[in-house]
């Protein structure tokens, strides 16, 4: 009876080995692509009034992203499917992407503020 109990307990502890795809996107690059995807979707949502034009523009942005990063949409999909099996890692990825977007936003706001100050100084 003890042997059966030990076998049962040990079988419950065996985790399924998750094999990464051969073309897995490295974590840092994956996070940067998440940032870019978020920015593309933000642009798309800002221009929803021109539905047909927005769809075309969005496709252009996606195609440029895949070309610039040398990653295919399919490769991103398989990497996403692999990474999403680890909920904590995906939460970390989205947190890092969010921080990156915030830094970019802060930088743009600072540049805009500095431009306004420079313009005010030149008007005097």
Strand content: under 5%
Low-confidence stretches: none
The overall average pLDDT, rounded, is 82
Count of distinct strands: 0
Number of helices: 5
Termini distance? Answer: 92 Å
Question: What fraction, in percent, of the residue positions are helical?
Answer: over 70%
Structural class: mainly alpha
Specify the overall morphology. Answer: globular
Q: Quick one: biggest sheet?
A: none
What is the total number of structural domains? 1
Topology as a string of helices (H) and strands (E): HHHHH
Radius of gyration: 23 Å
Architecture overview:
- With 124 residues, this protein is an all-alpha fold.
- It has one domain.
- It contains 5 helices and no strands.
- Helix 2 packs antiparallel against helix 3 and helix 2 packs across helix 5.
- It is globular, with a radius of gyration of 23 Å.
- The model has no long low-confidence stretch (mean pLDDT 82).
Spell out the blueprint of helices and strands:
Elements: H1 2-13, H2 27-46, H3 51-69, H4 73-83, H5 87-123
Short summary:
The protein has helices spanning 2-13, 27-46, 51-69, 73-83, 87-123.
């Amino acid at each position: 009876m003890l042997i059966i109990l030990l076998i049962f307990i040990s079988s419950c502890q065996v985790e399924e080995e998750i094999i990464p795809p051969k073309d897995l996107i490295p974590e840092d690059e994956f996070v940067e692509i998440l940032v870019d995807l978020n920015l593309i979707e933000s642009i798309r949502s800002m221009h929803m009034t021109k539905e047909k034009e927005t769809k075309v523009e969005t496709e252009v942005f996606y195609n440029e992203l895949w070309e610039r990063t040398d990653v295919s949409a399919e490769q991103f999909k398989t990497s996403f499917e692999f990474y999403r099996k680890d909920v904590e890692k995906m939460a970390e990825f989205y947190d890092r992407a969010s921080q990156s977007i915030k830094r970019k936003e802060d930088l743009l706001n600072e540049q805009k503020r500095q431009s306004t100050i420079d313009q005010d100084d030149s008007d005097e």
